[in-house]
Amino acid sequence: MTRPSWRGSCSRDGVALPAVLLLAAFLVAVSGWLLGHVRTEQEMAMAGDHVDQARRTAAAGLEIAAAALGGVADWTVIAGLVVSVPCPLSDRAPVAIDAGAETVALQAQWDAASRWGRNTPRWQLAWQCDAAGVFGRWPARSAPPALLVWLADQPEADAVPDEDSDGRVMVHALAVGPGGARATASASVQRAGPGGQVSLAAWRDGPE
Amino acid sequence: MTRGCQGVTLPDLLVSVCVGLVTVTAVVAALPPILDVVQTIPESTDLDQRARGASEAVVHTQKPAGAGPDLLGLGPLPHFVPAVWPLRLGTATADPPATAWGDRLSTLRVAAGAAQAPLAVAVVAGTSTIVLAWHPACGLDASCGFRRGDLVLVFNQHGVFELATLTGVAGLSLTRAGAASQPVDLPGQVTAVSASVVLFDAVRRQLRLADGATGNQPLVDDVVGVRVRYYGSAAPPRWPAVSGADTCAVSADGTPRLGLRGPVPGPPIELALAELSDGPWCGAGAGRFDADLMRVRAVRFAVRLQASSAAVRGPMPAWFTWPGSAVRPGQQVRDRELDLFVTPPNLAWTP
Lengths: 208, 351
Prior knowledge:
Helix content of chain A is about 40%, strand content about 20%. Chain A is α+β, with helices and mostly antiparallel strands. The longest helix of chain B is centred in the first third of the chain and has 53 residues, at about 10-60. Chain B is built from two helices and 17 strands. Chain B has helices at about 10-60, 345-350, and strands at about 85, 105-110, 115-120, 130, 150-155, 160-170, 175, 190, 195-200, 205-210, 215-220, 225-230, 270, 280, 290, 295-305, 335-340.
């Protein structure tokens, strides 16, 4: 005859497995939470790097374009101004950019805020390049940002927005990096006459 | 008979006690490092994110400093007034003029397409009316783009300026808050400006941001130190300058009035705060400033941040400005220091 047993005290089921499973679940949850933190931090840092790369590309592109303008004898016809600086091809494909759509968007932005009516500046695309071409090399793992540079006549100088009559033009650079990182730089530059030194009236980076 | 239901033997008990002790010891040994990681990683990432935010805000406010009223055909602001100031500038809670502080920084810039026009009538001290002359920069706008509430800079090429908020706009006649503290002679200009003030609030341990016309607001929490330093050329400033007339920085014959500070060309020199608040002076009244401010070409902004929780700050004063209760190195998140050196192009390109 066996002694009557109380199931709770003589059960062979045990509590080890549930305890181990609970502990494992806890550790997985904590690890996942921590990994989430680290991953978010890494993504934010990477996004910051991409914006910084785009910002440097835009600023460098603007400086190159402004310096190249000094070598152009005649600034009269803005549409005819070309930033004659080569953009060396690199083995890394730059970030894709739609130059036409960006030009339309820039013009729309100025049209919306303009108080100059038909003298509102008309932006002309003058140079298209990328960070690898601007800096000569691109050691970063990400794709090099794409660069667009536009020129426009100052709005107040004359009644013809496509022509410059006073040796002052506006330069606007946009760089688009991986992940949609965007940065702009713009400047108003001037010179006393053909061949004169290009000087800066205002340098700005966006958004204002 | 089932032995298991009748109790355990002594060996069983000893083994189970040993296994239990080993398990508890392992858990007790492993848990603190795990808890440390659980506590420090979020604090560390938060600190990094705040550091990035502070860096972004400081660079973003300083980089375009000095952008000038280009629609009037003029050069960058440093041709007329300083673009970088070691004080709280503006119309709301401004510091006394001609003072210099190491924990705050103000910058001025003219935004793209901002309202700007020449003065039609000289500004008389004690008055609050500003009369504009029409200029092509006005475009089709009857008030040249000026709006009530705009922060405006009224200045001329002698280094005389007034900073004011517009309270009324009627055609080419503007009304400013308060009265002009000094006359602004012709030829003078008026432009809408953007001011950025970054300052350290030691009591709240915050980096705060203001726009010069309203009160400031918090930018980053748990900031424990800020130090702003200024760098410039050893050459004397060539602005403000008026051909045939003396200004505070340049004589009528074009000779600089301030001395050399070192070899030219040479490396940038640090301008101590005392040098930026001891004269020679430009302007008067609320617009008085030290002519040495026209030397400034770059700003070095050092900021130190700490972890928000005292539980992850240790006792070492070198690593923790405000010590906390963390004992083990694995528990600690040290203070972060940023040292930002910003050279605004509008200052760097100014000869």
